[in-house]
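User: Please predict the structure of the protein below. I'd like the answer in structure-token form so I can feed it into my own downstream comparison script.

Assistant: Understood. Taking the following sequence of 315 residues as input:
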Amino acid sequence: MSKAIVGTFNKIPKLKSSHSYGWARTWSENLDIPIDHTNTYHHVVYLLHGANFGGSINLFGGFTQELKDSVDSLMKADKIISLDIDMPDYGAMLKKRKDVEDKDWCDALSAKLLTATKLVSSDLEFTHLAIGDSHTASYAPKDCSVVKRDGTTLRGQINSGFDYILEHIKPHHKSLTISLGNIDVRHHIVRHDTNVEEMVESLKAFGDSTGLDVEYSVPWPIEYEGRKLPKTGFYKGTSFYGSREQRQEVVGRYAAHMERLGMRTVSAPQEWYLMDCEEYAKTRMEGRQSVHLNPEYYRRENWGHIDTTLEEFFG
């Protein structure tokens, strides 16, 4: 019986430096199931809606026969598991489009998708949970559940009593990696003159309250300001707030206070913080227009360091 992780209307990219590929690879590693980049038929389909799915579909180039063939393959599956979210009604979305003429086919798709079940990574039986914002997979160790929610800020979680994280902590979890703070550094701390030390203390207080073994992510280095970003990364019309020097100082204060409080941290290699900022963006981050790390440099990839055994070295 064939099983695979499959994309929806956008096939899972093969480009290994892609953030979307990185999310698919994380699921693939955790489920020990291959990625299908072609959207062909499988008995059991784990449907990945895309790292940046926002609840609607954008079909660049319109609804093509290739897209219909992909959906037909999905509809033939014996079992469909929706990864991360409740299954969207793609049939209803397609039915509204003028370029999709067979409305009965859309209804059949809706009916098929109603049979799907949902799988969230925190339900997997790993004892370690990595959870936080869209950067979470970058900080996650091997052999752990990985849950992300795009746009999640440390300030927002402090204000909500860390409700999102608490929702995903299950009885089988013994330890946590919390990935928060990068969005706060990029957009909010300088803008609101936020007390960084108080934020870090609130984060530690929450971690202590869980009774679990917790590690905390240190925000990434600050890339150069000329890097173009997609509008999805903007807040109030800007891709960041504050000069690079101001935000760099914030990261330094953030990390230093973590150390003073004795917090166990997970951080990018120290040499990254000393790199030329443009070189860092070009060689460690994803593509040109992204705020995310290149998946080839994730923690699970040993931050891009290649470990070679003696046997491999001598071939």
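That's the full token string. Residues 244-260 form the longest helix (17 residues).
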